[in-house]
Protein: ATP-binding protein
Amino acid sequence: MTQAATVPVLDLSTCDKEPIRTPGSIQPHGFLLTLAPDLAVLQASGNVGDWTGVAPRDAVGQPLAAVIGAAAAQRIAPELAADLGPRPYYAGTITTANGHHFDVLAHEWDGVIIAEFEAVDRAEAADFRHLYPLIGDFLLKVNDATGIEALASLACQHIRSVTGFGRVLVYQFDADGHGHVTAEARDERYHSYMGQHFPASDIPAQARELYKLSRIRLIQDATYMPAPLVPALNPVTGRPNDLSFAALRSVSPVHLQYMRNMNTLASMSVSLMVKGKLWGLVSCHNEGPIPVAFEKRTACEQLGQILALCIESREDAADLQFRLEVRRTMVSMLAGLTQGSDFVENLVNVFPDLLRFARASGAAIMVDGRVLTYGDTPEEDDIRALVDWLTLHDHGDVFHTDKLSAQYPPAERLTRNASGLLAMPISRIHKHYLLWFRPEWVHTIEWAGNPHAKAAATGAPTQLSPRTSFDAWRETIHGTSQPWHQGEIEMALEFRTALLGIALERAEQMAELAEELGRANKELEAFSYSVSHDLRAPLRHIVGFADLLLESAGSEDAQQRQRFLKNIKEAARLAGKLVDDLLSFSQMGRASLRPTTVDMNDLVASCLDKLALETRGRNIEWNIGTLPEAWADPTFLHLALFNLLANAVKFTGQRDPAVIRVSAEDHPHETVFHVADNGAGFNMEYVHKLFGVFQRLHRMEDFQGTGIGLANVRRIVERHNGRVWADSVQGEGATFSFALPKQDSSH
Structure:
């Protein structure tokens, strides 16, 4: 960045629009070259002469060797010629012609190879052995940490021990972008920020976006003078260079002033990405300049990734537990709503559960002009006015807020018991509403400095006004309730759907329930048949051969005893498999589907790999066509396809060669897949039995199996709203087909 004759004005009103990805300059604790594919220098940072003795304008256009020396260039040329990605890659440690040592980082971005040379004291390569004890020790202690705060505190201690920073803290972003310090490790001389909040304006939205892309950032010395790129524009694009991933990228002068105001001359940030979102940062501060070598940064970045995975795991577990509790309450309510024929009376009867469901202090129902309330709620007239407002503004299926007065001004006088509102219409035609109220939650937030006061301190340059004070500043929040959990909102939507179903489609649901009960009864009959017949048979074998074994206890015939034991083992294995298959079948109807786009060619290949052991030594011709994608749960679909292919392998056991074909047909609304074989086939008179539980069309002695595989196939396909069928000529082979509906394009 070329220095102007006067100090530039730092306009904080536009700092969130500052071109932080294209600063045009770098931090000067190293130098930067942009290179063409043939490693000719396209641009050089303005300080390249300080490090190499070659002025930037003399370097441009020259081969890399002319700038750093032939030996150094030869050392890193193979790495630079490799297929580089956007993230900095350690290309090696070099010594330039004039005797300086550098770690070289390279990445390809914005049409050029960006080579960064970070000055180091050592001539030898970076030692990544720091990575293993740091991460190994952290992983050993992870299970002992009771919560996310304990995990974060552990990470702070490890990173501080590796880097030497005076203070390391973990900083979590809330929904509004404000940061909250949840863990800290520091030298006792350093001020503590534990538990304090930082306003969102301290890290503007565009900076948070950059933290998502580039997971680690180091500022060695906040008093540095940036080194501009020469020439200023990228010769490939004709625009300023995008340095998003560059380790030496210069940062905003506003941020540097912010650091100095915080008495921090060196900082490092590690992004904590949870489910693709920026959950927070590990933020490191030091009162004086401090270098952190690439291998140490790599160790810290790896630890940050592990911490993020641990956070995701703990949050998922807590979220799942919360949702289970809410769902239990919802199931209890729905059970109560089906007890009597009067829908409104049923709702009134489950009022206590309604409060517990939404962790609310009051609930109200407006049906047919009546207002029924329970708990601490506003007056009836206020509720009617609120429902009128909700109806007029059409907030969709569910409306929720933790600060009602901000959207509905008349609620200013209702803050005591209605600062928060969760509301939903329970009729598609009438003005029927269900509302939950939460009371005011008066709480105090401790900020690291007054977030509303950013005026410059007395005597400071008048044009510069990042925050200058980080003293604890308390703010008392009024007029808000406890926030609504995402799980509560989603469960409320489910509950609404259930209510509409009960209120408007009860007869249809009863018919569906009767059909489902009929199917369940048939399955129960099959289960009881299995227990009484299929499971009893191997148990009889076990008892019978055990008796024979006892009778032959004095016999010297070891071979006979061995045969008895083998039969007992085989019968026990079959019984165990029957139990396992029963469990699998029963679980199939309960597990939730997670449909996505499935590459059927990959799925078939995966199944064939899994069948390799069973097909070893067999002469099987596999004819696999080019298969279109399917919209399905990949785990369930894999199980269904594997069952069909395993069946084909089993029933072609007496064929040489066995021929198994997998093909597909692409229709406008569905995709049809076929698995055909030249095996034993079956009698089409009994095709209706084929997909039932424990139904076999062949003797068990001829073809081993429990009779559950095809029942699983049918259940999986039908759960995807698909259909399954089979055709066969006995003795010539069979074709099993299933159709899956395509993804609804409206979703």
User: Anything to note?
Assistant: The chain has 22 helices and 27 strands.
